[in-house]
Amino acid sequence: MPTVTVVVLTMGDRPTELAAAIESARRQSVDVEIVLVINGGDPDRSLADIVVDPGENLGIPEGRNCGAAAGTGTLICFLDDDGALRGDVFGPAVEAFAASNQLGVIGLRVVDEHGKTARRHLPGLRKDAERSAPATAFAGGACLLRRSAFDEVKGLCGPFRYGLEETDLSWRMISDGWDVQYRSDLQIYHPRTSPARHPEFFFHTARNRVWLAHRLLPLPIGLVYVFNWTAITLAKNFLAPASILSHLRGTIAGFRSRPGPRNPISWTAVMELTRRGRPPLV
Fold first, then answer.
1. For 146, which DSSP code?
2. Sign of the torsion angle spanned by Cα atoms 37, 43, 45, 48
3. Which domain holds residue 254?
4. Are residues 121 and 203 in the same domain?
5. How many whole angstroms separate alpha carbon 107 and alpha carbon 180?
6. Cβ(98)–Cβ(74) under 8 Å?
7. Is 68 part of a structural domain of the chain?
8. Smallest Cα–Cα separation from 13: which of 47, 42, 52?
């Protein structure tokens, strides 16, 4: 049985990067199996040990759920098809999981072509790329998860499709007693990009924040969380009316259709998120 199931989603439009990503996983010091999930296009299937082709674009979270289910490794790595692991990441990660039965997720440090880590890839409000620390979220395509923990909380929320699905997963894991850690010494290369490059970025993010609050936050905290992020978005984009309109459309859509179940985290979990540096208000 392989130690790590490496799940790579692809649209088939990055053949060179895809090959490099998979090669970086093959070079790890532990046994791996590569699961390629085809969300579009016609990638080189021979690169993978297992191919999942649903015949449609399932979105990121549901695609990763399907990829994870197809594998057998005790650990799962979600790896972007334009990323590449830097050195031996899996060896130290396996040791960390073995040392702590409560460790559910390790978030890797994402390093760009300039050797920098974008703020959006750093957990918590205290943005220090060099410091390993307890976390409340992680980069979705740069992480390792304990399969038993992932299965216990029933994986990622498929309807999110893109945006905040990792936060939803992290909060559920922490609420169930699992530990989420950011490891600055375990790194993955990924070219610097802006999430706003996706046409529906503001819509999906706003909608999914409402869904996140509905699914997991006690009512008073959830309302403050949505209000605060709307205010932050308006302040940051006051010169971009199209972005503001997209955000407002997403917020309305989030209130109109809310995927369940609603299972608010405990106040103890709220305090734990706060202790970890990210109170669920912002």
1. E
2. negative
3. 196-264
4. no
5. 8
6. no
7. yes
8. 42
Give the Å distances, CA to CA, from 52 to 15, 32, 141, 147, 242.
Answer: 17, 17, 17, 18, 37
**Which of helix, strand or coil describes residue 41?**
coil
Residue 101 lies in a domain: yes
Distance of CA 232 to the CA centre of its chain: 22
Neighbours of 74 (CB within 10 A): 15
Q: What are phi and psi of 248, to 5 degrees?
A: -65, -40
Domains held by the chain: number: 2
Kind of pairing between the strands at 103-111 and 142-146: antiparallel
Residues 169, 219 within the same domain: no
Answer whether residue 272 is part of any domain: no
Mean pLDDT by 10 residues, the chain (282 residues): 93 96 98 97 97 96 98 98 98 98 98 93 84 96 98 98 96 98 97 79 96 97 97 94 95 94 96 95 90
Give the C-alpha separation, 244 to 248, whole Å. Answer: 6
Question: 14 and 57 share a domain?
Answer: yes
In DSSP terms, which residues pair with 109 in a beta bridge? 187
Q: Are residues 148 and 216 in the same domain?
A: no
5's tokens: 């199931």
Q: Answer yes or no: do 257 and 182 share one domain.
A: no
In a domain? residue 269 = no
Length of the chain measured in residues: 282
